[in-house]
Design a protein that fits this description.
The complex is a heterodimer.
Chain A (H helix, E strand, L loop, with lengths): L3 H21 L4 H11 L4 H25 L5 H21 L5 H21 L13 H5 L4 E5 L4 E5 L4 H18 L3 H11 L5 H25 L5 H22 L4 H25 L1
Antiparallel strand pairs in A: 1-2
Helix pairs in contact in A: 1-2, 1-3, 1-9, 1-10, 2-3, 3-9, 3-10, 4-7, 4-9, 5-11, 7-8, 8-9
Chain B lengths: L1 H49 L13 H9 L3 H29 L3 H23 L1
Helix pairs in contact in B: 1-3, 2-3, 3-4
The chains are: A mainly alpha, B mainly alpha.
Chain lengths: 279, 131
């Protein structure tokens, strides 16, 4: 068991992770893991277990509000979920057969490239001139939400269904294989290829990451990686943070969220590159 | 004018339907999060106030039978574990609830899509157990 003071520190750190996770459509693992290992000196094994719990808490905690407010496009999320879960299964299956170092390098380059592309579009508030993909109408993937900042209803449609479906599959493979980065690829695919408003991309990613994490959570739990004295304050803190984050997201501009997302994207791409090169 | 009114009505009906789907899915998440957060909070409070984990040393239970036995005895770690398992099952519960919601709306494409995801989740859980 860990001390009460440490428990309360974990609780506070997790609130922060929940806020960022909910805003950016990520699981908060990029905050939780270094916080637990570097700042508190806890075992990496329990930190990874806690980050799985954090992903599910962020997703379920924020999605309830995002779905109600129509920021989440549930049909896009459900449709793409086929690709991510299939990818996660593939990733778990091939994990012994493939060299993770090469994958890290490839994905680092992909994320680096998308950071560049996102930088060029950093000031774009809403996507314009998007030509709907025929499948988008068939699958009812168009949507609308009320934007509190712009003070108007935003209608949007979607394009680039095949490339984003493929990236979702890859995102699933990565999370099944490496246990990280599934949220960042989801947001990137929806923002760059489907051309959704940024808030819709992060809220829809948020909706999806819980299911992706649940696919592997059973394995982590059975293996004893989810330590109750660490996971409890993480779950509670992240749930509080995700609720706060979901209230904050509707008050921010799409362009602002993209600007918060950019450095995170760059950071993860560099981290992956270093892991790939060092082995 | 008449045509316009009909169109508007159609739009309203469609929006009302969409809102039922979204509200029900949002509720399924809220229920899962609410129950699991409550159970985790009770377990965490027990842990902090009693200073006992309910088990010897750094041990914590991972097997279902052991956890349920500990829950009946109100062992803090066991109570937390039950809450964590409920939290992990919340996204799965949401997918299952979606199957029912879209079935009621006769939107069979999305019934199949969610069933596919549910099937792959089941494969993942079983593979995890076997591995």
């Amino acid at each position: 068991m860990i001390s009460t003071a440490t428990s309360l520190l974990i609780l506070l750190g997790s609130i922060l992770a929940g806020i960022f996770g909910a805003l950016l459509g990520l699981g908060g693992g990029i905050i939780i893991i270094p916080f637990l290992t570097l700042a508190l000196g806890l075992d990496i094994r329990y930190a990874i277990g806690a980050s799985i719990v954090s992903i599910i808490a962020t997703s379920s905690g924020a999605a309830a509000a995002f779905v109600r407010d129509r920021l989440t496009n549930i049909r896009i999320g459900m449709f793409l979920q086929i690709a991510t879960t299939a990818g996660a299964l593939t990733g778990a299956y091939i994990s012994g057969l493939i060299n993770a170092r090469i994958l890290y390098i490839i994905f680092a380059l992909v994320l680096g490239y998308s950071a560049l592309a996102m930088f060029q579009r950093r000031n774009i508030e809403l996507p314009e001139g998007v030509v709907a993909h025929p499948l988008a109408q068939k699958l009812k993937l168009e949507g609308s939400y009320y934007d509190q900042v712009l003070g108007k209803r935003v209608d949007y449609t979607t394009t680039g269904i095949y490339p984003s479906f493929s990236i979702m599959y890859v995102a699933g493979v990565i999370s099944g294989l490496l246990g990280i980065g599934s949220g960042i690829f989801k947001v990137m695919a929806m923002d760059m290829y489907m051309k959704l408003p940024m808030k819709v991309s992060t809220a829809t990613s948020n909706f999806m990451i819980g299911v992706t994490a649940a696919t592997s959570a059973g394995i982590y739990f059975a293996r004893g990686d989810i330590n109750p004295s660490i996971a409890a304050p993480v779950a509670l803190g992240v749930l509080v943070g995700a609720t706060l984050g979901s209230k904050l997201l509707v008050r921010l501009k799409n362009a602002t969220i993209r600007k918060i997302f950019l450095p995170v994207l760059l950071y993860i791409s560099l981290e992956m590159l270093i892991k790939g090169l060092r082995g | 004018m008449v045509v316009n009114t009909v169109n508007n009505e159609e739009v309203h009906i469609k929006e009302a339907q969409a809102s039922t789907i979204e509200n029900l899915i949002s509720q399924s998440l809220r229920i899962g999060v609410g129950i699991s957060a409550l159970v985790i909070a009770i377990g965490f409070a027990l842990l902090l106030f009693t200073g006992q984990t309910g088990y010897a040393g750094p041990f914590f239970p991972v097997k279902m039978g052991e956890i349920l036995k500990g829950l009946i005895q109100l062992k803090p770690y066991a109570v937390i574990d039950v809450g964590l398992i409920l939290l992990i099952l919340t996204p799965v519960f949401r997918v299952a609830a979606s199957v029912v919601v879209f079935w009621r709306e006769k939107d069979y494409t999305y019934v199949i899509i969610n069933l596919l995801v549910l099937l792959m989740l089941a494969v993942g859980f079983l593979a995890g157990k076997a591995g």
